[in-house]
Amino acid sequence: MQSNTLTPFLFPVIKQRMQMYNSPYRGLWDCIRTVTYTEGVGAFYRSYSTQLTMNIPFQAVHFITYELMQEQLNPHRHYHPGSHILSGAAAGAVSAAITTPLDVCKTLLNTQENIALSSMNVSGHLTGMANAFRTVYQLGGLSAFFKGVQARVIYQMPSTAIAWSVYEFFKYFLTKQQLPQEHEAGPRPL
């Protein structure tokens, strides 16, 4: 198996399939073998377009929200850990909430949940983002797109708060280290 090309797609599929209620897999290798044998290597790529489509708005909303929060909490952009943590947590929460519908579709594509698919008379395997959206809507309407939104928000908030506070700390630390060196060297030539 080509582990270098499968790794980013392999583990989310396996993790989600093993987390399903009554998962038929005995462990990691059993899941990899069974999915590869019964569905082919393509099973690990079914949610690729959905993942890409989700990451673009997630990151855009994430950065915009962080900057808007910093503008309100820290308009002079000084190093202030509290504002970085709060802004980072808010950015993660808003991004996670907005992109939850895409995450729900990605999870359906990764898990191919039999109960859901058989209730919709879907035979074979569900493929593609459009089919996933249609199936999620038919299964539960608009509210189905936001299943798990609270858990997703709670998961993202500390992660993004930590990431932003670490980023801001190192930006502050490295900038502070450069300032004395720049003063000693004099102004830079244009």
What does this structure look like?
With 190 residues, the chain is an all-alpha fold. The protein has two domains: 1-45, no CATH class; 46-173, no CATH class. Helices cover 74% and strands 0% of the residues. It has helices at 3-19, 28-39, 48-73, 81-111, 114-119, 129-140, 149-185. Helix 4 packs across helix 6. The longest helix has 37 residues, at 149-185. The protein is elongated, with a radius of gyration of 22 Å.
List the helices and strands and how they pair.
Blueprint: H1 3-19, H2 28-39, H3 48-73, H4 81-111, H5 114-119, H6 129-140, H7 149-185
Membrane topology: Multi-pass membrane protein
Keywords: Ion transport, Iron, Iron transport, Membrane, Mitochondrion, Transmembrane, Transmembrane helix, Transport
GO biological process, one term: iron import into the mitochondrion
Radius of gyration: 22 Å
SSE string: HHHHHHH
How many runs of DSSP E, i.e. beta strands? 0
* Nearest-integer average pLDDT: 85
* Count of alpha/pi helices: 7
Please describe the biggest sheet, giving its number of strands, its sense, and whether it closes into a barrel: none
Domain tally: 2
Q: How far is it from the N-terminal to the C-terminal residue, by CA?
A: 53 Å
Q: Tell me, what's the shape? A: elongated
